[in-house]
Every structure is written in structure tokens, then in C-alpha cells.
Amino acid sequence: MATDLGELLVPYMPTIRVPKTGDRVFKSECAFSFDSPESEGGLYVCMNTFLGFGREHVERHYRKTGQSVYMHLKRHVKEVSTGIFPVAQRSAIVLNRDFNGEDYEYEDEAKLVIFPDHFEIALPNIEELPALVTIACDAVLNAPSAYKKQEPESWEVEIQVSRHARSLRQLDNGVRIPPSGWKCQKCEMRENLWLNLTDGTMLCGKWFFDGSGGNGHALDHYKETKHPLAVKLDTITPDGADVYSFEEEEAVLDPHISEHLSHFGIDMLQMQKKTENGHHTDNNARPRVSEWEVIQESGMKLKAVYGSGYTGIKNLGHSCYLSTVMQVLFSIPDFQRMYVGNLQRIFDYSPLDPTQDFATQMAKVGHGLLSGQYSKPPMKSELIEQVMKEEYKHQQKGISPRMLKALVSRGHPEFSSNRQQDAQEFFLHMINLVERNSPSSENPSDAFRFLVEERVQCCQTRRVRYTQRVDYCIQLPAPVEAATNREELLAYDAKRREAEENMRAPPEPVRARIPFTACLQAFTEPENVPDFWSSALQAKSAGVKTSRFASFPEYLAVQIKKFTFGVDWVPKKLDLGIDVPDFLDLSRLRATGLQSGEEELPDLMPPIVLPEDTRECNRLLNVLKKPPEIDEAAVMQLAEMGFPLEACRKAVYYTGNMGPEMAFNWIIAHMEEPDFAEPLMLPSMLGPGPFSIADSPMGATPLDNSPPEESIAILTSMGFPRTHTIRALKATNNNLERALDWIFTHPEEEESDALSNMADTEPNDNAFSNGNSHSDSTLSPDGDTSGPRVKDGPGRYELFAVISHMGASTMSGHYVCHIKKEGRWVIYNDHKVCLSERPPKDLGYIYFYHRLSSS
């Protein structure tokens, strides 16, 4: 039999690889779906690319690549009858087995499958399989998860229970700790404070413990008293706290932390856990208790819903900002048509590594949310068991978008981390990625795109300038001074300050109630322009700016600016409620353009100050004129490793000829970029004449090399003509943001007559029109190329989705979204999807409106 198996595998041996360091093995999730080893059909892992595929998609990969040998992984799940695992045991299973699970035991099965005949070889099979195949199978089975770096570290495994926790002696000295106003009892420090769990003293830590500074009074106190355990005050949440043992000299676990804290009047851990997820934390829980309850609709018997459009998203560790944004995006028909409607085409034409393709991963998430495949109601047997066994509750499955998160966050310093993020920033990040990865004929982000008209006026000459910019989300200020309960707020503020001074518990918080009309009014009011340069005076002067809608989008995203920065540069959230209407009419905010009687500012740019030493300018020019020096020996050494020649040249050049090792590191860091293997393009072709900046638009030196095709595609996908786009990129050294501004400030003189004639012969009611003949861009319906593509229409809207934030800042807390579907509001709280009883519209952070028809 051994000979038979060996002969059977001989034709496929060149395609079987052993995973090397750096190879990612996708053995927990399909590249095209959310199938896993726990799915009915299991998971197939290609023994050459190490990509995972569900039963429905493995044939596609075989036909496309010709790879025939796959490892089939199947996990059989059994519920544990003895109750919940201890935390440490459950974490060990997660880390060793590399799959997630709670309250279950697993029985794993692996075998090799050879396509197309589906010949199966059970594993392990050391005696009968060739040595290379056995080594490859063992390496795949023992390989870490492809997302190991994205998963939160398991504190339960790394941190041990303190030997002092069970027998800790606490002094009955009457000490009670207030929820705020803390400071070190031996100095005035208010940060990095530690509460000794024996006597209740509040003292500062040492600077090196968490990097926030301190005078070491907590450690000095231990040396004097030998009281071993202390808890960091600003880490106390309903889910736990950071505990340190001075005697053991390490962070420890305290299983009795709830009782130990309640000894000093801290009852936060006795509350009903409102997050039901260890990742959701809030460093200022007491003032936010009502906020967490209201937004999550705690205490209400919410009815779970299942099926298409009612699939939840599992929390991957502070990833609720991603979950809420994706739920809202895929409730919009434009995104559904683009990614789910074109699912088969996207999958069929996906690259060889679909985990790195944006369209594929968006289609995968969209199908997961809308198919209903991962949101099925419990079976009758489960309902009977639920009645018989009260502690058992059916858990909605949901999807885990690990691949999408890894892809869209790659290279981003914040989104690639496991920290909580701002949902509004992620929404704009996703819109930017959709723009970059959508063909010009079909772009779902068109639904959010609109133009803002900015009117800047010189206060001295009264002259004006009108410009337009593209935007996708309107940010409304929250003027606290316009609160309808201002007197109540002033009284609360006085009581709070008095409580802090006397170290007493603060009064019940009062939430500011602000009318939505006040937010709109604050948005439309004139604002000062810092460092305004008046082209009429050709000098700096005072200037004011007002903003209006030059077009209204089909879907309007409205962010309430609830967050501000404290003295420690940490974003803080204003505790306020906005009376947001279900129906909104913004018609009065339509831009009007240049009005009769207004005089425009001259179209002049501020003078550019040149360095006083012109010899330095000449020296820099000579340096730029020189051809780049590239160590060809280092280039060839890298090329012999199999890297593209042009990529090797760029690596050596950009690392300053520092040697092959430095260049190799550059290649590893940049090999995923789309222009990785494109020729090296340098701004070295300068004209021979004297140095003159006046000849260059915007003060930039024009380059003779053509702009990158990717940058051209991004701008043309917004509706700008290709020729105008190339001119803009050349004039701004291929900077996309500056190129967009250049397009708006340099209308096409050559094409303006032809376009106006076209508009005269083919009028369209939806085309944007303003009275400014010297405007920066001309709005037009889809198909016209005179400006960015927008879906302009009436400014009347209806609210259909709300993303709410709970917590003190964007760096902590939790996001939940409410979406109106089929005439009823639905709450999406990670993997849980239920009918909403009281959607908290007044506590929203981002509101989404859809345009009403003109009828």
C-alpha cells in the first residue's frame, strides 16, 4: 500500500510545498466564504499556496491553478456537559488549536484529497506517505494562524493568579474611593495612580511601569507596609482591572477583585455586565452607565431576527467600529449591487491570491451578511433544550471578517492595531478604498459623494472667492451653549467642581440637550480663515469662510462632532443628546454661487519665498540633474533571489546604496504594493534654463515623466477628463490631494465652450448649475466628464441608520448600529441582531439619511 500511495503522489510531488517562515497558512477560513473546519463540508487547504477553500469554492481554485492536492480539515464539535471551562483552559485551546470556541470540545480530522477524482488519504500516515508529504502535512497542521498578529493576546494564559489573592487581608479603616478626582496622597499626581488593596491608599507608580510617569510612591508604600497587591485605578471596568503584585514583581490575576474593590466602595464590578464581551471597555463607566444601557437597550427582551440582511459580525477584538460601518454600507443597494450582485464575476476573475483582492473580500463579506447562510434560527430541538436548560441560550453565529480587516488595515498605523478606532475615520477610509478599487463605470461610493461650495470673503475689500471640494460626510458641530437645559447644566457643573474639591462622589450627570437645528446653524455660520492671504491686497488680511451644499448626495452621512481633545491629547467625548429628526430638509443650504453685486478676488497665488542663498538652490538643481547612482552589483544579487529587476533597482536606490541586506528589507516591506515591479521613475528631468518657480503651477516644478496610471484611474473614476487629470498630476508632482485641488482651481478653458454648447443642446434637470461663470467645476449628470460624478437631487432625506458610541473617547468603548429595515428598526450589536424597541436616535454619533423622491 505504501508503494501505491507513493506512486499515486509522484506526479504531484513538485506542487507540494512545505510552509516556510513568512508563509501564511489559511487553515481556519475560506478565501471566498466564511466556511471553516467546523462547517458541514469542512475546509480544503491547498498544499501549494496554503489558501483555504470551502467545499463550494475548492473546485474553482483547482480549475484556475491546476493544483490537485489539498488537505481537508474537519472539526466535529461537542458541547461540554459539565459547564463552562476555566478561563485559562479555554485560552489554551484557542492558542494551541488555533480555532475559537467556548463551552465546547473538539475532535479534529485531517486527510489529503487529490482532485479531480477526490481520492482521500487519511492522516497521519507516516509509514505510507513520502517523507516530503509527511513533513508538509505536519507543517500545515502545526502552522500558526494567518491572523495571529491581528488577534488579541490572551492575558489569561500569560498572567498568573497571585498567591496573595485568596488570603489578602484588607483593613477595616473606613476608606471609600470616589469615582473621580483621584490624586496621589503623597504628591499631586493625578495619573498612573494605584490603589493598594489592603489599606486603600492611592499612590503613584513608577515611570517605567506603563510609561505614563510617576514618583514611585506606591512601591515605597509596599516597602514600608508589605501590603502586596495594588490595582490601577483607570483600568477598572465591569470586566476586570489591571492588578500588580509588588512581592511577586509582575502583573497578576485577582479572581476576587470584585470583593476586594467593593471593600472600598467601588461597586463597578457588581453591575450587570453590559458589554457581554471582554473586549469592550470604558475607563469612565459610572457617568456612562445610562448611555450603555440606553444604546444597547439593556433590560429589554429584544427579539432576535434571522435571515438575509440580519447577520451579525463577530467582534475580533475592538473591531466593532468595522462591524457597524460594514452593516450600514451593505444595507445600501449600490453596495449590494456592486459586490453581491456581481459575486460570481468577482470570484471567477479574482487573482491567484484572493485574500489580497479588495473586491473579492468585499463580495465575501456582503454575501455573508445578505445570504442568510450564517443567520439561521434555532432548530426545534434547540428550543426544547433551551426550555429544559435555562442557562443555555442559542447564540447567533455571525461572520468573522478577518481577511477583510487584515486587507483594508494593511499599512495603516491605527486600523492595523487591536485598539479601538473612530468609526467615522474608518468609514472615510473604506470609501477611499472603494474609490481606488472601483472601475469608472460602477462606483458605489458615488452614492455618498457630494460637493461643498466654500465662499471666502476678504473682510477689508469685501471681495469673494468661490471654490468647491468633494466630500462624503458632513461634520456638524455640537454647540453646547445652545442646549435647551443650559441652566441645569450650569448647576451640575458647579456641584461637580465642589465634589471634586471636597473629594466627594460626583452628582448624577446631566446630559446636554441640543436641537439639531442648532447644529445646522453652527455649520452654516461664518468662520475665520487663519493666515488668510488676500489676492486683492496682495497681503495677509482677515478672512471669513462659509460652506453650503453645491450638490446633495443620494445618501447623506452626518457626523456629530462629539469628541474633543483634552490637555493630555486624548480624545474626550461630550455627554450630549441631539434631537435628530427622522425627516430632514436641507434645501435652504443649497449653494448659490457668485451673486450679483459681488466682486471676485483676483486669481493670484501668494508669492513663494525663495532661500536667500541662491547658491544652495543651484546646488540642489545640480543634484537633481545628476542621474541616480545605483549599485548594480547589489541589484543583481537581489535579482538572483527571484525578485523583479525593476523592483531590485528601486530597492537599492531608495535605501541609498546601503547594501543588499537593507534593500532586501525594503523589498519585503513594499512587495505588496501595486507598482512594486514598475520601472523606477525619478523627478530628474529638469529643463536647462534658470531656476524659475513662477513658470510652474502652484509653485511646483513640472516633471516630464508621466503620472502613475493608478493615480490617473482614481481621478478619472470621479468623472474628471483624462487629459485634465494628467495635467493636474504633473503640476502637483503626482500628489492626489493637491491634484484634486488643482482641478478645481484650474477649470478647462479649452473645453468650456464645447461643454456649454453640449449643455445647451442636451439639457438635464439633474445637472448642477450655479450662477458663477468662473466656478471651479461644473456639475453634471452621470456620463458628462466636466467634473466629479455626483448624484445630485433634492435635499430632502429620511433617517435609515444610526451608529452610536458608548464610552469616554474613541480610544475605548463600544459601537452599536441601528438600521431601519422593512419599516422596523433593528439593532446590530456585534454578532447579536434583534428588533429594536427604542432606537436611541438622540445618542447617535453618525447618522445616515437616504434621499426622498421628488414626488
Automatic annotation (TrEMBL):
Keywords: Autophagy, Hydrolase, Metal-binding, Protease, Repeat, Thiol protease, Ubl conjugation pathway, Zinc, Zinc-finger
Top-level taxonomy: Eukaryota, Metazoa, Chordata, Craniata, Vertebrata
Segments forming domain USP: 311-852
Residues of the active site: 320 (nucleophile), 814 (proton acceptor)
Xref: PANTHER family: UBIQUITIN CARBOXYL-TERMINAL HYDROLASE, UBIQUITIN CARBOXYL-TERMINAL HYDROLASE 13
UBP-type domain location: 160-268
UniProt-recorded name of the protein: Ubiquitin carboxyl-terminal hydrolase
Keyword RNA-binding in annotation: no
Stretches assigned to the UBA domain: 629-670, 706-746
Biased composition range(s): Polar residues: 754-780
Catalytic activity: Thiol-dependent hydrolysis of ester, thioester, amide, peptide and isopeptide bonds formed by the C-terminal Gly of ubiquitin (a 76-residue protein attached to proteins as an intracellular targeting signal)
Molecular function as annotated in GO: cysteine-type deubiquitinase activity; zinc ion binding
UniProt record, GO biological process: autophagy; protein deubiquitination; proteolysis
Region described as Disordered: spans on this chain: 751-791
Sites where the protein binds Zn(2+): 184, 187, 204, 217
Transmembrane intervals: none
Keyword set includes DNA-binding: no
Top-level enzyme category: hydrolase
Family of this protein: Belongs to the peptidase C19 family.
SUPFAM superfamilies: Cysteine proteinases, RING/U-box, UBA-like
EC number(s) recorded for this UniProt protein: 3.4.19.12
Highest taxon above the source species: Eukaryota
Signal peptide positions on this chain: none
